[in-house]
UniProtKB/TrEMBL annotation, chain A:
The lineage of its organism: Eukaryota, Viridiplantae, Streptophyta, Embryophyta, Marchantiophyta. Coiled coil: none annotated. Residues 88-163 form the ATP synthase F1 complex delta/epsilon subunit N-terminal domain. Keywords: Hydrogen ion transport, Ion transport, Membrane, Mitochondrion, Mitochondrion inner membrane, Transit peptide, Transport. It comes from Riccia sorocarpa. One of its GO terms (cellular component) is mitochondrial inner membrane. This is ATP synthase F1 complex delta/epsilon subunit N-terminal domain-containing protein. InterPro entries: ATP_synth_F1_dsu/esu, ATP_synth_F1_dsu/esu_N, ATPsynth_dsu/esu_N. Belongs to the ATPase epsilon chain family. GO terms for biological process: proton transmembrane transport.
From TrEMBL, chain B:
Belongs to the eukaryotic ATPase epsilon family. This is ATP synthase subunit epsilon, mitochondrial. InterPro entries: ATP_synth_F1_esu_mt, ATP_synth_F1_esu_sf_mt.
Amino acid sequence: MLTKNRLLTSTASVVRGCGGWSHANYVPTRRYAEAASPGAEKSKPSPAVTEELKKAWKAVAPILDFPKVPSNFLKQRPPVPATIPAKLTLNFVLPRKSHIEEVDMVTIPASTGVMGVLPGHVPTVVEIKPELLSIQNGAEVTKYVVSGGYAFIHANSVTDIMAEDGYPPENFDIEEAKKALS
Amino acid sequence: MSAPQGAQAVAQVAKGAAPYWRNAGMTYLAYVNACSAHVRNCLKEPFKSQSASREQIHYKFTEWDNGVPSKPVLRSSNPEE
């Protein structure tokens, strides 16, 4: 029993070391599902900066301004809409082209597999594989061969796709690609 | 779990903790630049030379000595110049 526990903890530390992920920069984030649920208002923690605190500060140090707290510098997260939006807000950027518009669906070739993103998709961050990415808006489909990058799908159906480089598939020479792959 | 099995499990988990290019010893930038170079290499002719021309760098060096500039030297990644 004792050896098993020790093994598990050592595994965890090895994993952490290999991933290069440090706990020092961890910022607890509020969960969107909780925020959007009807009981959210009651369960929200009370703010640290209250009027009483400001009054107490004024009493102690009248000539000093109330100090700024991290929430002063934080931009508010955009609110999650109550119903799933009809269109996906796409921010697809390439070095020399961009598609910043509302579309119906995007098919992203993620390293974990090809994923189709519709409005209301679970918030995800994926690494893009060098494959075909397609944007579907009504009847028209635009395709790009993307070499890599990352895609961020947010809870409010805004999809940011930061592609390293990408070109329409018509620009490619298939024979050259087959030769290069072998 | 015996000791060698445990070591194997640890190695597998460690390998799965990072993407394959990290395990191969590359950084993300090295990997993505290699992928992009390959993609650009597979382009058809007008687009291929367009992207190659975008990658060219031109420099103009001017050495200064005692507040006086000497003749500027032009350097380019384009071998013709």
